[in-house]
UniProtKB/TrEMBL annotation:
Cofactor or coenzyme needed: heme
Protein name as catalogued: Catalase
A GO term from the CC aspect: cytosol
Region (Disordered) location: 1-55
GO biological process per UniProt: hydrogen peroxide catabolic process; response to oxidative stress
Catalytic center residues: H121, N194
Function noted in UniProt: Decomposes hydrogen peroxide into water and oxygen; serves to protect cells from the toxic effects of hydrogen peroxide.
Amino acid sequence: MPHNRTKALEHGHDNAVAPPAGETVKPGSSELTASTTTEEPGTAKTGGPAQLGTNETIAPLDQFKVDPSDQPLTTNQGVRIADNQNTLKAGLRGPSLLEDFILREKITHFDHERIPERIVHARGSAAHGYFEAYDALTQYTRAAPFAEKGKITPLFARFSTVAGERGSKDTARDARGFAVKFYTDEGNWDLVGNNIPVFFIQDAMKFPDLVHALKPEPHHGMPQAASAHDTFWDFVSLMPESTHMLMWVMSDRGIPRSYRMMQGFGVHTFRLVNEQGESVFCKFHWTPLQGTYSLVWDEAVKISGADPDFHRRDLWEAIEAGEFPEWELGLQIFTEEQAESFSFDVLDSTKIVPEELVPVTPVGRMVLNRNPDNFFAETEQVAFCTAHVVPGIDFSNDPLLAGRIHSYSDTQITRLGGPNFHEIPINTSLAPVQNNQRDGLHRQAVHRGRVAYEPNSLAGGCPFQGGASQTGPSGFVSFPDTNAEDKVRGKPEKFAEHYAQATLFFNSQSAVEQAHIVAGFRFELSKVGVPAIRERMLSSLVNVSPDLAAKVADGLGMAVPAAMPKAMENPEPAEVNQSPALSMMSLPGEGGVRTRQIAVLVEDGVHYASLASLHSALTNAGAVVHFVGPKVGLFAGVGDSGDKTGEEIEADKSMENAPGFLFDALVIPDGSEAVQTLVDNGDPMEFVKDQFKHCKTILALGAGRKLLEMAGIDSAAGQDPGILMADSADAAGIAPTFIDAVAAHRHSSREIDPPAK
């Protein structure tokens, strides 16, 4: 290379938006770019020289998987271990010896097995899967996943709570993380979002303050995985921009039924950029095909005690059973000119773009079809970063997004032991990785040659910058967004409007959903010990809905205060005052009872044939049926005459280890002897009452009605579509009606506040 021919092309606007490809020269011999002239004579350890232009560290996870079949124990150095039971000692009763390198290695590694947990989103569950594009979106973006119809992109998705620590419970009231790592053929793209489309704050400057306020209070470390405490409500009541997010978290969205039954959102406004350099704005929406459903608060609290891993177990078991969760990806695509006309600012992460203004266009589907092999190696070590984008995806000027672009990468350096976290197998790209970054903790790649800089001639100019236009894929070029503004600290004027979309959300909910929001605020604020904080929060809620504020105040035994002064007294009128898409009632999914957990109570003397026919109908519909007895094991069945038939039913769960609130519906069996035994036992009564209180579907067969009578529920039959009764002979006939009732998830007409005894 007589000189650097591209140097003159580093200058000027045209070259800035269309940078040239780097100059390369093919060396006359591969030895010219080698690390050593002795790379050819290899050993069993060194192997041969690196294949030119390759990076073997980015291959599929197969190369990193380990199986011990027919293999002896060894140390980390590969030395076989003869005795894994005893420390080396000076005599059988003598002192342990310092020279026991096997013990020392084993204990030392054990002492360092744990890594720092994530600051937020510490508790999560994940799965592998793929994304399938419905059609090419090349008119909007050159992003690899949308390049052609039917294109398949492998991915890894992780769901999480935000506030709790790694060992906290799944069913806390909280936002949920929804992060997807696309392993595209042009690099990794991480879409890191939540199950709620907005956030608490508008600017990343406030993120440490928010998290410090939300986390357990530092003087006593309580409460864990909960926002119902003074510091959180002190902060958000002084930050009225949080009000919209509070409405979502206090709603049923804050306690989903399952990770498989919650929406996901990219939260921020992103850019899509096509091959011609044209840009539009975009918001990302994930919608579960199984529908969007939630828990009620009493149910969530009880589940957290009986099974704190409720959501983790649900996701794992569904995938293991072949019931692969599926979400549809939808995009809201709009121009900058459209965005400027809205009454709100699309760079404000506390705002949505109502679907009435910009519809959601379905563009593909995500299917999760494989559980991880190892929780730590994959789920715990996966590193999601909003900075990970591919050509065709770019950022807007959202100030919260700007902070996340830095923060996520920065936190992984501490958590995963250095800047090479991208070389951990779960994080590696499937696209070629070649750069001049070297060294650092835990470096895996062994780079060939002596060059680690660019430009260079000693490696033939490689690796070279991709440029914006060349044969083959071009490099990432940021969208040339113009900015002629002063350098200032501040917010745009439209950011000052904090309540219109909170009101929109509340007004878009059904009466039952609104009642749950009231109950959510009432519970949380009742945990606040400083009356002034309660009053301040109530004054903010007056600006959302006087009715909401009055009902919350009544539950706290307080008078409704005057409305909090608004940061913007005369905002632009909102374009939309009610949006049905914001209610979970509008998101039933495909319906049906696939993966729904059905409890069938059993005791000695149950009518066998009716339960067998019902079990067959439910499992054929995709439900998961559990026979639940006072203990696990076998229970004798009877026929129509009440005589034992010799047939038995095996209870796979007991009322002791699987209380009623863990199930989606209940079947009470026929059989006079069995029902009387159940009536005489307190556990079945609690089982039935929890199912009723949580508005679940209950079917009583024959004599099973007596259990409903003793629980005071029989009077609801006929008026309540979720209370069904049938004779044993009609079990098969009632099955379709029961299935339809279970598919409704919950019968909210039964709900009263406060609940009945």
